[in-house]
Amino acid sequence: MTAKGQGRTAFAYLAPALLILGGLLAYPIYQLVLISLYDYGQEQVSGGAPLEFLGLGNYQNLLGDQQFWGVLGQTVAFAAVCVVGTLLVGAFLAILATRVRTWVRMTLFLAALGAWSTPAVAGSTIWLFLFDANFGFVNEVLGIQGFSWTFDKWTAFGLVAAQVIWCSFPFVMVTLYAGIKAIPGEVLEAAALDGASAFRTAWSVMLPLLRPIILVVTIQSIIWDFKVFTQIYVMTNGGGIAGRNLVLNVYAYQQAFAASEYGLGAAIGVVMTVLLLGITMFYLRALKRSGEVL
Amino acid sequence: MRLKTLVAVLGVGAVVACAPVQSGPTSSGTDEQTGQLRVWLFDEVNRGPKEAVVKEAISEFQGKHSGVTVDVQYIQVSSRAERFKAAFSDPKSAPDVAEFGNTDLAGYVSAGGFSELDLGKWDESKDLVPTILDTAKVDGKTYGVPWFVGVRALYYRTDVFTELGLKPPTTLDEIATTAREIRQKKPELIGISAGGKYLFAALPFIWAQGGDLAKSDGGKFTAAIDSAEAKAGVAEYTELIKDDICPPATCAGNGGDASVEAFRAGKAAMTIGGDFNRKSVDASSAAGKYGVVPLPGKDKGSIAPAFAGGNLLGVMKGTQRKTLATEFTQLLASKKYQQKMYTAMGNLPTFTDVQKQVADSDKFLEPFTKTLQSGTKFVPVTPAWAKIEAQAVVPTMLQEIVTGAKNVDTATADAAKTMNAAFTS
Fold first, then answer.
1. According to Swiss-Prot or TrEMBL, what is its membrane topology (chain A) (predicted)?
2. Which of A225, B89, B203, B294 is geometrically suited to a Cys-Cys bond with B303, CB 3.0 to 4.6 A?
3. Residue B250: which of A148, A238, A242 has the nearest Cβ?
4. Which of B18, B89, B425 faces A45 most closely, judged by CB atoms?
5. What are the angstrom distances between the C-alpha of B45 and each of B97, B255, B342?
6. In which band, very low, low, confident or very high, does the pLDDT at B12 lie, cut at 50, 70 and 90?
7. Closest-CA residue in chain B for A52?
8. Could you give the angle at the alpha carbon of B368 between the alpha carbons of B363 and B372, nearest 5°?
9. Which residues form the domain of B274?
């Protein structure tokens, strides 16, 4: 087969996947960008007013808005805390799972799967009940009835972060546990024979081997936690007192979609996509430079 | 090279040629006299009595028009925005007649959803309370018939007031002093359950001081929330959400329902509640030991202007049976059926004479009808208001003040800025 023919065959094999990606990814993004360039409200959607092309007007409005930058900073910090928390808790429990007896491990996994499979709305509501100011179990145990967890900006953020970590650590734990289990026994045995301490084995042998997996779960967590909506929306009642617990997604919903400003909402969506792509690219490049094979 | 050019051409073409989709109702022009009339009404917690009255109206209507059937669908209030947006975008799924909240009117009309109504030929329309009929108008044109109204007044606990030897406040200023005194003597009680998100409780304070949310000049709105009068009202209302009356940690996040809930739970000595809250308060621990007075105004004996909430019945623009739809709207909103709806659901009628009738037969309604007759006010009638409400501009302003994040001057100035941005966009 000629090189050209080979290329054609390869393309034919890839075509179905390309088609699906194009339909599910490229087209929506194309629409998103397109809408973000227009003044596109409910009047325009239902034909009550003519379309107006704004060019970058929506972006100008957005980037000129002080609150947007405040919310963006808050979102980044909140996502960072959630990602670090999720990874730490997940990694700790994964290591624990490799060291304990089967029935303990089974219990741990069942509990984690329970948290994982709880729908976000239900999980958030249950946490709210637990931390209710007057009737909550937590306040009862701590003896601080009447203390509102969701009033203060920082306790509210802390509570939501804890909930987010609670429902996302199982993914990290299960993945890392599988990774640890996949490390060949001979490698660890060799390290032990060389007289490496447990810490040394973990740091110099296991960690490098686990890196690709850690990479995947980190990027996944960043993307998830950056896009948190339900937990903030439900637990802080739409962004907290005076909107001080807003994150980007809830902000986009409130400013744009609830207010039928779809053009502005699309602009926020584009900005978020670009940001997340940027973070992912940066992370991948940094890893590539340090010699990791991807 | 050729491929690159092709891609570039395609890309430019795509951006220039394609615009986001638009669709929508255009008047169909036809006006059929038979067939099925589709009606959307709001679902309620206890829908039975409402449904019975509506069924009665339907059989009367079908009796008069042979070959006409009426199909009623009950839609959820909470998802109404999506339902109506979908109906406006796709006339085929739209009803002919719909019930909707009067604060949604301006947005729906500018979306091209409802058609103008000519009430001139309908005798009963003369008796509609003028300020209530105004809530059905945009730019002087009527787009709906007020079906019922809801107004708020001051609920107070008679047992607490008797025990402490207090009288219900008679001026706006007295509300804070009375509430403070109650909490001082009974620290387990909230003086008055006010909420940081309870817009309709805050508005009477602003209006009573002579302020307003916005001023209209020939249909162009500008924010007035930062005027001296409005600021006085805002300051007076936010003073209630302080530790010595209604602690911010409990009250700052509350909207109307949560504020009334505290009163129902017996945790508050006063609250601002509507005539529509009666049934739920009667089914609570406050039952039998509460009274209601009109929310007092600035001067002794005056009443603070209340927000005229309520629902309208209107005819959709895309309807193919406009005459029938208008007739059914007028029948369901008629004096006869408003009277029946009052008996069934406790909904306050929108006709002056019917209001008097029901108030005479039921003493409980007196403070509410008094409030209605002393004059009510409304939020700015412009599609921008829907946006301002969705963005929670006013609640955010109130919450910023009660948490001390901003003072009254800064918070109102910032809110005015956001509102003006919405008015001019």
1. Multi-pass membrane protein
2. B294
3. A148
4. B89
5. 22, 19, 16
6. very low
7. B19
8. 130
9. 152-211+226-307
pLDDT digits (tens, 9 = 90+) for B317-350: 888 899 999 999 999 999 999 999 998 888 899 9
- Indicate whether B158 belongs to any domain: yes
Residue B166, C-beta contacts closer than 8 angstroms, at least 6 positions apart: B160, B178, B181, B182
Residues of B with CB under 8 A from a CB of A: 14-15, 18-26, 81, 85, 88-89, 107, 110-113, 196, 248-250, 252-253, 383, 386-387, 390-392, 396, 399-400, 403, 405, 425
In which residue are the tokens 């809830």 written? A250
Closest chain B residue to the Cα of A266, Cα to Cα: B20
Residue pair B157/B179 in contact (Cβ under 8 Å)? The answer is no
Of the candidates B53, B301, B328, B284, the one whose C-alpha atom is nearest the C-alpha of residue B174 is B301
Contact status, residue B142 vs residue B105, Cβ threshold 8 Å: no
Q: Cβ contact (<8 Å) for B107 and A242? A: no
C-beta of residue B315 within 8 angstroms of C-beta of residue B308: no
Q: Domain A65-289 is of which CATH architecture?
A: Orthogonal Bundle (1.10)
> Looking at the domain assignment, is residue B23 inside a domain?
no
Number of domains making up chain B = 2
Contact criterion met (CB < 8 Å) for A133 and B392:
no
Q: Which two tokens stand for residue A258?
A: 């609830």
Does the ipTM exceed 0.95?
A: no
8 Å CB contact of B253 and A133: no
Kindly report, residue by residue over A84-126, the tens digit of the pLDDT: 999 999 999 998 998 899 999 999 999 999 999 999 999 999 9
| Order of strands across the sheet that contains B35-42 | B68-75, B35-42, B97-101, B309-315, B145-150
CA distance B18 to chain A (A): 8
What is the per-residue pLDDT across B279-301, written as a single tens digit (0 to 9) for each?
889 989 999 999 999 999 999 99
Identify whether B7 is part of a domain. Answer: no
Both B171 and B296 in a single domain? yes
Residue-wise pLDDT tens digits, A201-246:
888 888 888 888 888 889 889 989 999 999 999 999 888 888 899 9
